[in-house]
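User: Quick one: structure for sequence A, then sequence B.

Assistant: Sequence A:
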Amino acid sequence: MDKEKNLYTVLFAGAMVIVVGTILAYLASALSARIKENERFEKQQNILYAMGVNENEGDGSVDFIPTDRVEQEFTSYITDQLVIEGDKITKDDQAYLIDIKKQLDILKNGETPKLPVFIGEKDGEKFYIIPMYGKGLWDAIWGFMALDEDMTVKGVFFDHKAETPGLGANIKQRYFMDDFKGESILAGTQYAGIKVAKGNNDPVNTIKDDNEVDALAGATITGNGVSSMISKTVNLYKDYFETLRNKE
């Protein structure tokens, strides 16, 4: 066949598409188990990070429990996993695998979502960890928030898919996440969430009763996304939170 003709080019391109597509399909199939395992470990790491179980050193590091230990640590620190489905609360030791994005889509369709809660214990203190999911500037943002029975934040973890490096992407930096510690999601007796506020006159975040943390420079829309994500999540879980606050 004449290699200078268009037919050769078309046939060659078609053959390459088939070969490359076959290789990618094989790799996706062969690695699917490993990918799922890594996703499972990552969720466990993030949940533990929110409740303060990590390997951070110094002031700026964000270091998770290594994958070769995280499953054991998760089992050790997370004492219960619950699923809230309407008025029903059940135990499920696989609740951490629930895809919160899919559950929010179910809610949008008018159906009842399954909302996971992870109960952890560390140094004699009890933590209630909830997942969060929202929208940043460019794409999805998500995370976990750990609370005590008084609705005080004990820790958070945030991550994102495509926020701007050096700006909105800094939601996963240690200095930003640490600002949430000690804040309350209550304003008096009302659930208010926590706002990422520009110009809140508390840049070092010493005021813990204002339901605000200082915004990231140049990342207003991402910060608004975090505020909205927290507010919507708190609203979803507030009935469950009321049961914790009414414990005798």
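Sequence B:
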Amino acid sequence: MASSSPTYVFSADTERVDRALVHRWLSEEAYWAKGRPREKHDAAMDASRNYGVYDSDTGRQVAYARVVTDGVFFAWLCDVFVDAELRGQGIGARLIDGVMAELDGLRIRRVLLATADAQGVYRPFGFDELSGPLAWMIRTREG
């Protein structure tokens, strides 16, 4: 007898990403990207590595992450999002596990991310707060 629970699969295929869905998620629901214009979102995706998790039965995308990297030394994991209706089922962990496997294959030395509330999601993958003599700095501009 077949299971009624969906199976979720990770993919690093950028062509598979539902750009309209991801833009809606981020621009309407993500605290860090509310109001993000579609053209800027698409440009950021085009300049990044893009990842998704999909329902294996329907092919529907259920999660997304983007990585900005030089492919050698540094990567920034960003725009991590899981469909709000499906949170708590391990989909985010499946997504991060897949992304980290891809980046580990590149032997990237530093992977950075920022989160206001999901530290517990990332700790099992080796992430921790910044410490040591480095002082990260930021430059921002309006718009």
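The CA atoms of residues 65 and 80 lie 4 Å apart. The chain is about 30% helix and 20% strand.

User: Thanks, that's what I needed.
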